[in-house]
Structure formats: structure tokens, C-alpha cells
What does this fold into?
Amino acid sequence: MNFTELLASVSPSGDNARATVIPETWKQGRTAYGGLTAALCLEAAIPLSGGLPVRAVQIAFVGPVNGTAVCKAEVLRQGKNTVFTSVRMTGEDGVLAEAIITFGAARTSTLDFAHLPPPEVPAPDAAALFFRKEGQGPTFAQNFDMLLAGGHAPMSGAAQADISIWMRHRDPATRSDAVALLALADAPPPAAITMCTAPGRFSSMTWMAEFLTETIETDDRWFLARHVGQTAGNGYSSQEMTLWNSKREPVMVGRQTIAIFV
It folds into this structure.
């Protein structure tokens, strides 16, 4: 089931609630891929946004997401220019994820800057495949095309946790919007895995993503992601991420807390 089909399968489940059966093809181990969990929460919140564009998503991945997941959205506060919503995802095992999503109108400002230069990496047509052959990697990754653009490969024993990847939805009919971008943005592995020399388990605990544009546009669906691990200790890692479109214009920034089991 591709992303377009998955969104089409979402069904109403009470007031401001939507139910989704998580396909096996979107799993990462025993849970849904984190980008999909976040995207489903955002999709549930949009009808309460008053038509305003999304500015930020903050989500805690509380428990494994599988089976039927229900996203219940609620308006926390609606002002003149902003709407704050909460989305709780639940399943048979209780609360699975909790999100705070902020929508905001554009305002005239004297400030307009973005000091987020992209890494110097080749274009997608000159980058190497991220997985050496079809079928490698976690199950959910088969929904995306991924190319190793720069930094270090996973399990390469690198001295720095830094990885850059060109990526896109494999489904050519995927809509170009914030929900689809959020579903894509978490696809790269944690940057800290580049410093490992053997496979290990990593799990996202929290994710904060900020949208830098109201219009999600790129060529041939490609986006460039750079994930940089800044700290690791006591079984946790903190990393930053930036996403650019094909013209290398910044479209998203974020932070993640990751649990490390190596």
C-alpha cells in the first residue's frame, strides 16, 4: 500500500477522530515508521486548522504503533493568527503517540532570512544508492527512493555522526504538501549509526519539526536531508536535521531524541 492509498484508507472514528489500519509495509520492527505516525497526526489536525498553514509539529512516540490506530484531534487555543491543536493517537495498548501541532497565518515582518546552507553534495542523478540492493533496510524504507549524498554511511565507524540523503516518495502520485513531507522527513536512519561498526537498534522518542515554507515544491519529488548527531550518552542521542528541496532551498528543520540500544 503506497502513501496515497494509505491516506485514502483513513476513516472517520467519532468527532475529530480518524482510524487507520497500519500496513505491514509501513512498519519499522514492531511499530509503524515514525514519519508515518507523525503524518497521520498532522492529517487529523488539519481540519481544525481554520485553513492556516502548519508551522510546527512536536510529537512524542509513546508506544509501538500497530493494528488500528485512532488519531483524536482537539483545538487547544484558536487566536487571530494561530491555532494550537493536540492529537492523541491510541490503540489497543492505550496511548501510542501525543502531538502538539501549531498552525499560523503569514504576517508582514521586517525580518526575512535563512542561514541554512546545504551541504555540498552531488545532484540525485550522480548520487549512489543508499541501499546496495532492493529489499535492504527496514520494511518501511521500500516506500521511498533513497540516495547517499554525503557524510558517512551507516555502520562505517565514522568519527562524526553526519549523513546526507536525497530521498523521495516512491509513489509518483504522492501529493505535494506538509503531510507528505512529514511522512518523508524521518526516513534517514539516526545519524549516530554512522559511528557504529555493527548493526544495532535505535528508536525515536521525540521529534520536533518546523516548516519553513507554506508551499512544498521540488523537482521530481526529491528532497535533500542532512542529519547530524550532536550528543550521545547514557543510551540516548540528540540530533538536528535540515531538509532542502531540489533547488536547495530550506523547507524544514527539526530535532530528535533517540534511544540507543548498542
Summary: The helical segments are 3-9, 34-45, 178-185. Residues 3-105+123-260 form a domain with the Porin fold (CATH 2.40.160.210). The longest helix spans residues 34-45. The longest strand covers residues 68-78.
